[in-house]
Amino acid sequence: MAILAGVLGPFVVQSRQSIASDMFAHVALAGIGAALLVGVSPWWGALPALIIVSTMIWRLLDSGTYSPDALAMFFLSGGLAAALAFVHLARDTVFSFENYLFGSILTLTSTDVMAIVLATIAVVGVVWYVWYPLLGATQSPRYLIPFRRTPKIVQLLFFWLLAIVVWVGIKTIGGLLIGALLVIPVLTARNWASSFKQLVVLTTVVSVLSVSLGLFAALYVDLPPSSLIIGMTILAFVLQASVAAAISKRSSG
Amino acid sequence: MNKSVISVKNVTKAVGGRQLLVDVSFEIAEQSLVSLIGPNGAGKSTMVKIILGLDQQYDGSVTIRKGELVQYIPQLVMDDQYQLPMSVYEYMSIATNRLYSTNKKQVDFEQALSHVGVAGEKLHQSYTSLSGGERQRVAIARALLGDPTILVLDEPLAAVDYASRSGLYKLIRHLQQDHKMTVLLVSHDIDSVLPLSDQVLCLNQSLHTDCHPSQFTAERSQYNQTIHHHC
User: Tell me, what CATH number does B198's domain have?
Assistant: First the structure.
């Protein structure tokens, strides 16, 4: 998850789609609810919901009719409402959304781990293969040459990649916290990179260190691992901001 | 008279009852340097999208001569504080294909940069640390990678300080004369593009003027009035 967040996070921040991870997480909850209703594994039920809805969002954004923030709120609230309705209809009194909202990293099965490893390989492989088109598709339009073959398909691919990262995220870090892991390490690394490739490497390092230290801390501190992991990303951000401010003060003084 | 490479005939476009272009016709000769000017909202961007083939919902016809390759260079904006780091190499790579070999890319990029007067060592520097003039040159270098025959530059001097303008004028003239390109400059700022132009097209929904810059003086006061009316 740390690698996935590190690799895709800079593209998410660059495309001004940081809130999209939250929107996708709520859509995943609707998928989990629908899966409960039809009696399949909740986590696996989230994947088709994410792919279908991410395609719908891409299509609606492409139409230019609706603003991204309005669409985000539409799917964020709509997903949550659908999830509540599905769980109510499924009458599953044992099921708890909390595991998917805040993660349940310590309850992963070997099958879950295998699925996460395969998803990581697939996402990193696709990002590596379409690196420059993806960089173009997630940049501000003014950085692009408006090619006759517009990068619409790459934008759809980007939404699918984000959907897969969120799918992994709801099982590990939690749907409500995945956005923090995608965004905060990027903000931490951005002042220390001079190219996008450097930014992705530094973001991945910050993300992996934060997750590792957060999990290690969870062995000794009685707090949820997810909150400790996000706490570590915030700590890393504050540390780098302090160092950057000190360097800036020294060079100006 | 050179042959026409872009021929626009009776182009009209309306969106939601609002007329964006009304019966616009003009010709652009090969290897000429033409300015398309007009105030904000005059239909310049719509006309450019139609020429680039990005907008096909209009009446009339636009013909690009067979074999011509049009490359567009968008307007630069300098104050994007949210832009994440990106090297010049990465900026230029956005325009290239995945199968382009890294070694060839390096050589081609350095060559394109040398054509526009940017040192090859800037290739691995941060794009966002460049000045406005350097960014405009890098944008032109990126456009040159596709070996275009027609360049369309949108507000090419908007983000360039006065000290760097004469260098860019020379570069654009060099591309037109030595690389035998046709250049279309799109701008609302007549003063920035008039010194370069062989032909001035003044657009304000319909085409008000199609003339040589020396003849434009008479139309100038009318153009200024139009600008003030719109601002």
Answer: 3.40.50.300
List all residues 6 or more positions away from B164 whose beta carbon is below 8 Å from its beta carbon: B131, B132, B133
Check CB contact of A132 with chain B, cutoff 8 Å: yes
- The span from the first CA to the last CA of chain B, in angstroms, equals 38
Q: Between chains, do B85 and A142 touch, taking CB under 8 Å as contact?
A: no
Please give the average per-residue pLDDT across B8-13, as a whole number: 90
Domain assignment of residue B75, yes or no: no
Question: What are the tens digits of pLDDT across the range A166-219?
Answer: 999 888 888 778 889 999 999 999 989 989 999 999 999 999 999 999 989 988
Q: Which amino acid is at A91?
A: R
User: Minimal Cα distance from A142: which residue of B?
Assistant: B74
- Measured between CB atoms, which of A136, A140, A195 is closest to B85? A195
Q: Indicate whether B87 and B61 sit together in one domain.
A: no
Same domain for B166 and B108, yes or no, is: no
Partner B contacted by A149 (CB < 8 A) = no
Q: B147, B179, B198: which is the final residue of a domain?
A: B147
Residue among B94, B125, B126 minimizing CB distance to A135: B94
Share the mean pLDDT of chain A: 86
Q: Which of B75, B80, B126 sits opposite A195 (nearest CB)?
A: B126
For residue A32, the distance in angstroms to the closest alpha carbon of chain B comes to: 35
- Asked whether the ipTM of the predicted complex exceeds the cut of 0.90, the reply is no
What's chain B's average pLDDT? 80
Q: Is residue B132 part of a domain?
A: yes
Query: In chain B, what percentage of residues exceed pLDDT 70?
Result: 82
> Is the CB of residue B178 less than 8 Å away from at least one CB of chain A?
no
Domain span holding position B114: 80-147
pLDDT band at A122 (very low <50, low <70, confident <90, very high): very high
B143 neighbourhood in chain A, CB within 8 Å? 145
Amino acid letter, residue B88: V
Asked whether residue B74 is domain-assigned, the answer is no
Q: Note whether A144 contacts B74, CB cutoff 8 Å.
A: yes
For residues B38 and B87, state if they share a domain. no
Please say which residue of B92, B119, B147 terminates a domain. Answer: B147
Residue written as token pair 């230029």: B92
Instruction: Please report the sign of the dihedral spanned by the C-alpha atoms of residue B89, residue B94, residue B95, residue B100.
Output: positive
Answer whether B88's CB lies under 8 Å from B127's CB.
yes
**pLDDT score recorded for residue A198:** 94
**How many residues does the structure list for chain B?**
231
